[in-house]
Amino acid sequence: MCQVLNVSRSGYYAWVDRPPSVAERRRRELIEQICRVHEESFGTYGSPRTHAELIDRKIDVCVNTVANRTGSIGSSRRSCPTASGPATSPTSQRGKAFCTWRR
To answer: Cα–Cα distance between 65 and 82 in angstroms, integer?
Structure first.
């Protein structure tokens, strides 16, 4: 795989073993909060109402960020993952799980 990616083996494993950055941890927490709001609204809230709910919960976030995160994890008309947890996808950063929406 390293040859395909054109990276050294040591560089790849250094990247894989690196702990998540502050920004990545913040992104994950925000996605979890968006999923929680989406579930509690029975899938009826779009990004503006989700943003308002996050502000009510004292989570400081921009409306555009909520719209971008909502768009990156799926449509507001889809349901959140089951209790078994979020699915992983090959495009998720470093193979770590992100909340994904499913029909």
So the answer is: 24
